[in-house]
Structures are given as C-alpha cells and as structure tokens.
Design goal:
Helix 5 crosses helix 6 and helix 9 crosses helix 10. By secondary structure, this protein is an all-alpha fold. It is 57% helix and 0% strand. It binds a DNA duplex (11 and 11 nucleotides) through helix 3, helix 6, helix 8, helix 9 and helix 11.
DNA sequence: AACTCGGGGCA
DNA sequence: TGCCCAGAGTT
C-alpha cells in the first residue's frame, strides 16, 4: 500500500482515538514493565485496576521482592495466569536488582532475557518508557494491519518489518496504540464493525475482497 | 507450530 | 454457560 495512504490512515485513527497513547498507566519504567507483563491475555482496564492498588506499596523491584509468590499472586489474580505472572515478575525484579543495578534495561537484547518478558512487552517498554521508536505487533496490530492492508505478513515479525517500512519513525510508537485501539473498538476479530469504521474508504478488507485476510 | 496457563467480564 | 482477553514459555 502507498505510504501516503498509510500515514493518512494512522492520522485518522489517531484523531479517532485521542486517548490511545498508552493505556497502561505508569510512573516509571519499572511500573510500565510490570503492567505490561500483567497485560498478557487481559484487558488494560483490569491491569490498571490491579496496579493502582499494587503500586501504592510495591512500585520498585526492591519492594516487590519482599512479597512471596503467593502474596503477589493474590494481588494480581484478577489479571489471570497469576502463578506464572507472579513468578515471572519476582524473578524479573530480582534480575533487575542483581544484574542491572535496580534499573530496567533499555535494550531489546537485555529486556527479552528477563523472565516473562518477550518481544511485545519489550517493544512497549522501549517505546513508551524510554522513547525508543518501536512497533510491538500483538494480536490486534497483526490482524488490523493485515485487514487494512497497511502491512501484510503471515508472521508478526514480517508485519513489524512492513509497518516500520511504511510508517515514519516518529509515528511508530503512537501507531502501535492506534492500531490496538482500533482493533478493540471497531476492527474486532469476530465481528468487525465496518459500518462505523473511520478508515473504511481506505480498507482493503472492505474494498478488495480478493485481498481478504488469509 | 501447537499447547498450556486462568480468572473475570460480558452476551 | 460459553467465549474472549495489550503473551510468553515449553516441547
């Protein structure tokens, strides 16, 4: 797709979802890292509810590791996968203390070594906490990009490469959030609400049936 | 590439 | 009740 059209689409989405910058509330890179780890298969609304309470007392790796896995598990259980998540959060907090001087690392290479931190979480932390341009391709970004036709690919990595090629670098981080918001509100996986889609005129899913998602 | 982990919100 | 949700680790 024409790069000009891609930028147009993203600008429209940005105007449609002005609140979409970063839905996870955080006051430090560490808070964002933990919030993002919690957000796996769990909506941002619930994550924010949990972290609002959790961060009152436990908003640094040093304070976090004073909790046992069971104690932390109780506090985060409404985010699901609580055994894995509490274990990973504690292991990651210990690694940050012991191997990174208590600071969240700011490179992809170091971030994905942390237990429970994958490429998506790392991208979110890099772009939102450290201002390093990145596009995390989660299920929403993957689906919406393929449908619209702004980036096609059968793997998240392929879609990421296409997006980075088609979007100006200074729009990468915001675009990630716009695409997620659009995927949740309108371009849903099951029943996309094309009748209310602000970028329907540009959408290949609607206008080019032969290019329909695979 | 497929499978597993998981409670809560909503139809 | 059944389906779905800002993913990552293991096999």
């Amino acid at each position: 797709m024409n790069k000009q059209i891609v930028v147009t689409i993203l600008k429209i989405l940005g105007e449609t979802y002005p609140e979409a910058r970063c839905a996870l509330k955080f006051g430090s890179p560490y808070e964002l890292l933990v919030a993002t780890m919690l957000s796996a298969q769990c909506t941002d609304v619930r994550v924010n509810k949990v972290t609002n309470e959790l961060y009152r007392e436990f908003n640094t790796p040093e304070k976090m590791v004073s909790l046992t896995e069971e104690e932390l598990g109780k506090k985060i259980k409404s985010c699901g996968f609580f055994r894995n998540k509490s274990k990973h959060i504690l292991e990651t907090s210990r690694a940050i203390i012991e191997e990174h001087g208590g600071k969240v690392p700011d490179t992809m290479e170091e971030l994905i070594k942390l237990p429970g931190v994958g490429r998506k979480t790392a991208d979110v932390v890099l772009s939102n906490a450290f201002g390093i341009p990145a596009i995390a391709v989660d299920t929403h970004v993957f689906r919406v990009s393929n449908r619209l036709g702004i980036a096609r690919g059968n793997t998240p990595h392929k879609v990421e490469m296409e997006l980075m090629k088609n979007i100006p670098k200074n729009m990468w981080s915001d675009s990630h959030h716009y695409l997620i918001w659009h995927g949740r509100k309108i371009c849903k996986s099951r029943k996309p609400d094309c009748g209310h889609c602000p970028v329907a005129p540009y959408c290949e899913y609607l206008n080019c049936p032969e290019k329909n998602e695979k």
